[in-house]
Write a structure and sequence with these properties.
With 339 residues, this protein is α+β, with helices and mostly antiparallel strands. Helix content is 35%, strand content 31%. It contains 8 helices and 14 strands. 18% of the residues are buried.
């Protein structure tokens, strides 16, 4: 019995040893499975981060919301959305400040710290650190006192190498469909739009026009009237800022008939590099008829117009048929006498 007991114990020991070996081998399979699962979760989360980063740079609230657990009122209030309709003035005009914020946002980039990734049980929840960056607009602000609209500011911004960087711990959960991960703390990203541009000053192209005046043959400055002419000349005096820019404009000559305007001429777009003065002469074959005219240049980008209105009055032709006959007769008589 003693030997049998010992043999049973040995058998049990062998069984336990085999069992322990099996238990020892199984965790390796589980670890591999977990690693595969984590890799798949990472890929899905990083894909969502890419969509979020693009949405922030594009100021696309709809795309941003699609990748979050719910809409964010804070993000809706802070994201500087500018649409094509805004550019076409089909909706209330967006301020220059808001448009400038949109331009800064377009420089947003991101970098994922893959080593910071943490996954919850079976990947139901996870988090990762992401650094969002945008061009340091403050350096552009310090470079000049005022800018020719947001476009000039944006040109200088693109040439700026320095960035503002901020790191966020983004948290993700499975979406309702269970197919991809969505951001559960969207409000944290609102600060990526913390731009202070309220003190940036802008001016428009025609703000550089000091004054304009008419001149040329037949022009009377006192009465602001052209007489017996087929040519108009307008001159625009520009301030010192003008020579730092390339101008773009069209010009037109108009006959004003009450509320109806008859365009005698409209130019193509004129590109004028670094002008110190703009001088334009319009000439036609015949004399201009009597009437009230306008001669102006037009800035299509800023919807600005500047120019002069003036009168045209021609000298009356007081010829009487009888007088003409008498004159002809006298001429003939004189010729005859001379002969």
């Amino acid at each position: 019995m003693h030997k049998r007991f010992i043999s049973i114990v040995l058998v049990l020991a062998n069984v336990l040893t085999l069992a322990s070996c099996q238990v020892y081998d199984k965790p390796d399979e589980t670890d591999a499975s977990k690693e595969t699962k984590t890799s798949a979760v990472k890929e899905e989360v990083f894909d969502t981060i890419e969509k979020i980063g693009n949405a922030l740079a594009e100021c696309n609230l709809e795309k941003f919301t699609e990748n979050c657990v719910a809409s964010s009122r804070e993000m809706e209030r802070k994201m500087p959305v500018v649409t094509e309709e805004d550019d076409d003035y089909k909706t209330p005009r967006i301020t220059d400040e808001w448009r400038l914020m949109n331009l800064i946002a377009s420089s947003i980039t991101y970098e994922i710290d893959e080593g910071s990734f943490k996954g919850g049980f079976w990947g139901s929840k996870c988090s990762v650190d992401v650094t969002f960056s945008y061009k340091d607009y403050r350096r552009v602000k310090m470079s000049k006192n005022e800018f020719l609209g947001p476009a000039e500011f944006n040109t200088l911004l693109r040439d700026t190498a320095e960035t503002v960087d901020e790191t966020y711990t983004l948290q993700f959960v499975k979406g309702e469909s269970g197919r991809h991960y969505v951001l559960s703390n969207p409000d944290d990203l609102v600060s990526v739009y913390n731009y202070d541009v309220s003190d940036v000053k802008f001016f428009k192209q025609f703000d550089m026009v000091k004054r304009c005046y008419l001149e040329g043959e037949g022009y009377d400055k006192k009465t602001d009237t052209y007489k017996d002419t087929n040519s108009f000349t307008i001159v625009f005096e520009l301030d010192n800022r003008a020579e730092n820019y390339t101008w773009s404009y069209i010009y037109a000559v108009v006959l004003e008939n009450g509320s109806d305007w008859t365009y005698l001429y409209t130019s193509k777009t004129i590109i004028d590099k670094n002008p110190t003065e703009i001088r334009i002469t319009y000439t036609q074959d015949e004399k201009f008829e009597d009437g009230f005219y306008a001669f102006f240049i037009y800035d299509q980008t800023n919807k600005q117009l500047v120019g002069q209105e003036f009168h045209v009055k021609n000298t009356p032709q007081d010829t009487v048929p009888g007088d003409a006959s008498d004159a002809s007769d006298a001429s003939a008589e004189t010729t005859a006498e001379t002969t």
